[in-house]
Amino acid sequence: MDSYGKLYTVGYAALEQIEPLQLFLSDKVLLIDIRYIPSSRWRPEWSRKRLHEKFAPNYQHIRELGNINYHSSDLPIQLVDAKRGVAKIVQLLQQGYDICLLCTCADWKTCHRRIVADLVEQELADIQTVHLSNNDLCCLL
Ligand SMILES: [Zn+2]
Predict the structure, then answer these.
(1) E-assigned strand segments in 43-131
(2) How far is the CA of 1 from the centre of ligand 1 (A)?
């Protein structure tokens, strides 16, 4: 049986602070930003620039996995280029990297990261996604 990295997801709107996530990821888990627009006006510490400063070289933004319709929950989730984006994630997992997908949304069930995780699970049958919540992380501090 092949062994792959682990797949986590997180939505920062559910997190009170960034530090517990840093502790959790340590220097072992890649933080993969899958927001269509990787910036945050109300919480600037979650912008691509700041995340890059904090997490590089373990931070990447994969635009192909962004949801074109992120601004409206009335519109269906539509990924920029699901095939290419998912292939990148699958390749990293096959190389043994642990990955945490990052979006804004507090609730993974309605977030496009659920779609991305489902697509990855279809490619790699042994992967079981762990959706992190504030409760999983806050106790680490
Ligand atoms: Zn989302």
Answers:
(1) 59-61, 98-103, 130-131
(2) 32
- For residue range 46-77, list pLDDT tens digits in order: 999 999 999 999 999 999 999 999 999 899 99
Q: How far is the CA of 103 from the centre of ligand 1 (A)?
A: 5
Q: What CATH number does the domain located at 7-138 have?
A: 3.40.1010
Centre of ligand 1 from the C-alpha of residue 131, in Å: 12
Q: What is the pLDDT of residues 118-133, one digit of tens each?
A: 999 999 988 999 999 9
Q: How confident is the model at residue 138 (pLDDT cuts 50, 70, 90)?
A: confident
CA separation for the pair 42, 44 (Å, rounded): 6
Query: Domain segments of the chain: what residues?
Result: 7-138
